Amino acid sequence: MIESDCCQRCCCPNTREFTVNILDKSNPQEVIRIHREFKCCSCCGCWCGSCPHCMQEVTVESPPGTIIGTVTQVGTSFGMNYLIKDAYDTSTLYIIGPSCLCHGPATYCCENKFTVSNILIRICISRLQAMSTIVENI
Hints:
Number of helices: 1
Helix content: under 10%
Protein name: Phospholipid scramblase
Keywords: Calcium, Lipoprotein, Palmitate
Number of strands: 10
Organism: Rotaria magnacalcarata
InterPro entries: Scramblase
Radius of gyration: 16 Å
Distance between the termini: 30 Å
Cofactor: Ca(2+)
C-alpha cells in the first residue's frame, strides 16, 4: 500500500513524499515501511539532482519504527546512482542507473537498466530493469 499526497503526485511526481507499507500476506500486519520525504529542488535551479539538497533518500524500517537501512541518491552530473546503507550508515551496495529514465511510450525505445555492485570490490551482483518485472541475478 502506498500513501502519498494527491497534490504532490500531480505537481511533482518525481520528488513527492511517500510511504510504502509492505504487509505480511498471511497476517495483515505491516512488516516493512519505506519512506521518502518531499524534496523541492527549485531552490538551487538544479535539474539533474547533483546538488546535495536535491538528492533523494528513502529509509527502510523493519519492523516499522526500526530503521534497517537507507537508499541515498549519489550526486552525479548525469545518471541516477544510489548507495544502499545499513542501519549503521555503512555503505554496502552501489547502484549505477541509466543517464535518463524513459517513461510512457518512450519506454519501448529506451533501456532503463540498473547495475547493483558490491561497494568494496565493485563486482556486479545483480541487474534490474525499471518499468518491467525483469530481475537478473548473477
